[in-house]
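Category: protein sequence paired with discrete backbone structure
Discipline: computational structural biology
Format: plain text, a pair of labelled lines
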Amino acid sequence: MMFTENLSMSSTISLPSCSCCHRAIMPNDKCVKFNCPNCGVDLIWRCESCREAARNYTCSSCNFQGP
């Protein structure tokens, strides 16, 4: 008697995106993440490019805007 197993291993990786430019942040990117300085609820991600250019981000919970 022969037993066959159909093992399907499927996983999805969800990458964070920059809160300014919305580009996916890769694992080795030089980025920062921090909670919103106003409400502390949202996690803000900033890529190296947006940090260096001091682009504004907006918290989706409280609409706080920061550089």
Remarks:
- Helices lie at 48-53.
- The mean pLDDT is 89.
- The first helix runs from residue 48 to 53.
- The chain is about 10% helix and 20% strand.
